[in-house]
Design goal:
Blueprint: E1 9-18, E2 21-30, H1 36-54, E3 62-71, E4 79-82, E5 88-89, E6 104-112, E7 120-125, H2 140-151, E8 163-171, E9 174-189, E10 195-196
Antiparallel strand pairs: 1-2, 1-3, 2-8, 3-4, 3-5, 6-7, 6-9, 6-10, 8-9
Amino acid sequence: MAFIPVPDTVAIDVIYDWDGQIVENTLYYTKISPTDTEITDQVDLVTGYIRDTIMPLLTELISLVRVVGTLLTALDGFTFTSTGGLPVAGAILQTTAKSFPGNVSLAISFRTSEAGRSGRGRNFVAGLVDLRDGNSLLDDVYAGQVVTAWQGLRTLGSDAGWAQVVVSRFHAHAARTTGVVFPITSTLMVDRTIDSQRRRLPGRGS
């Protein structure tokens, strides 16, 4: 796919090692004319939050290995890789709660004021532990903890002018010339149904 610029916006790729697989979540933040230093600070802020707030909710079998921020204004935009305090493994020991298989995840939805698919984004949470309410539903308390942790990503860097956004590169099935962003207004789970990401099984992903 041809590069589509997204002015003043940084893609932050959160990269994990999960049972020998590399899995990623992507977050987007924007502010007016961010400098290299401001981007570096924001990537480090996201890294610290995930390390200290999200990893304690995940199995010891998953590790956060690096967080990469890339300015999307141009093809050769500034890039910074944060590895402060990394790698770090999830805090829930197998002796406390067994992990789900690598394909099991929970869908987190990012909502904006824009209707339709262009105004929504999502992450799939890897490294969950096997706490269930019935056969196919994640335990309500545990799911709530995970969602609350993801909700905290929305205000990271807000004091410095950053806003978490959803990026739209397509409209009406056609590529945009320039990507547009929509500020995230809420972060939620659609339901507690356990989702499957088959590419996260060993030997199927990257």
